[in-house]
């Protein structure tokens, strides 16, 4: 059984436009799938539908089943929010493009990272403090004591995204959904954050749904790719298949415009 099974997922806007159409895919334990497509192709709405977080007024049909270890398999579509609250963070969690969306501007970073550790792992006092600093160290933040004392605006964009990743991983989720997690960062720190994410996912054996418009980025992080256009899947396959033999003209364009996919492929382990 897969960890995530999406079957015939469709999302319609309040005025009836089909924004995601009949999308089906699955992700097994430890698998890493890239969702790639140009702006507006429906990638983010797919992620939101999986988390049960679509904007009010949108209608969703089809099926999204999350079946994480130690939790009952759950149909997300139509589930009451109370049931989804128990899944979010644990079965699946999200890192978004803009780390400030995950962070409270008025709360010190340490308290924010501590919160999921307290809630999910039941840690308190010195153990909680130690786990918070170790979570910040794990995302390769040097001087974690200073970062823990800082407010989000007092640290850099790259550091904020590392903090957001630390918070997401604190709940030990089975599936991480990363929606353009490096797009808002300076080019100089994009590669660092990407390799951090790839290493953490591999070390923990987590599953990954990685959303991007950039094939070069996805090539370095995922095993398989699903190409989306206008809300539908137009092609899917292994990263190597898609890069070396794209079948659809749209995919070919994506391959052609992938800035540095050669470089990214070279980074992949054989
Ligand atoms: N709240 C909303 N109300 C109405 N339409 C929306 C809403 N959010 C997204 N859309 C539309 O749904 C379509 C898919 O949007 P989505 O954000 O999933 O695309 P995307 O592939 O993630 O693009 P990007 O890479 O720019 O984030 C787009 O046409 C978008 O305009």
TrEMBL record:
Gene3D superfamilies hit by this protein: P-loop containing nucleotide triphosphate hydrolases
Predominant subcellular localization, coarse grouping: membrane
Taxonomic superkingdom: Bacteria
Keyword Membrane annotated: yes
InterPro entries with a match to the protein in the record: AAA+_ATPase, ABC_Ni/Peptide_Import, ABC_transporter-like_ATP-bd, ABC_transporter-like_CS, P-loop_NTPase
Membrane topology: Peripheral membrane protein
Name of the featured protein: ABC transporter ATP-binding protein
């Amino acid at each position: 059984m897969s960890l995530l099974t999406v079957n015939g997922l469709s999302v319609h806007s309040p005025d009836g436009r089909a924004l995601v159409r009949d999308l089906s895919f699955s992700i097994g334990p430890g698998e890493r799938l890239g969702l790639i497509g140009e702006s507006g192709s429906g990638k983010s709405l797919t992620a939101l539908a999986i988390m049960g977080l679509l904007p009010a007024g949108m209608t969703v049909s089809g099926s999204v089943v999350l079946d994480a270890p130690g939790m009952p398999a759950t149909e997300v579509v139509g589930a009451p929010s109370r049931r989804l609250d128990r899944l979010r963070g644990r079965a699946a969690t999200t890192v978004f493009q803009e780390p400030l969306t995950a962070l409270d501007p008025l709360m010190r970073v340490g308290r924010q990272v501590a919160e999921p550790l307290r809630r999910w792992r039941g840690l308190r006092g010195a153990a909680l403090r130690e786990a918070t600093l170790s979570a910040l160290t794990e995302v390769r933040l040097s001087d974690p004591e200073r970062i823990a004392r800082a407010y989000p605006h007092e640290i850099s964009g790259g550091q904020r995204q590392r903090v957001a990743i630390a918070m997401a991983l604190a709940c030990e989720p089975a599936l991480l959904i990363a929606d353009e997690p490096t797009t808002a960062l300076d080019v100089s720190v994009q590669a660092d954050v990407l390799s951090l994410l790839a290493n953490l996912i591999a070390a923990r054996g987590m599953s990954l749904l990685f959303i991007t418009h950039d094939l070069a980025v996805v090539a370095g992080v995922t095993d398989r790719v699903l190409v989306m256009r206008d809300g539908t899947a137009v092609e899917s396959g292994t990263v190597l298949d898609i890069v070396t033999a794209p079948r659809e003209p749209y995919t070919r364009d994506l391959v052609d415009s992938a800035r540095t996919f050669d470089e990214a492929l070279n980074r992949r382990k054989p």
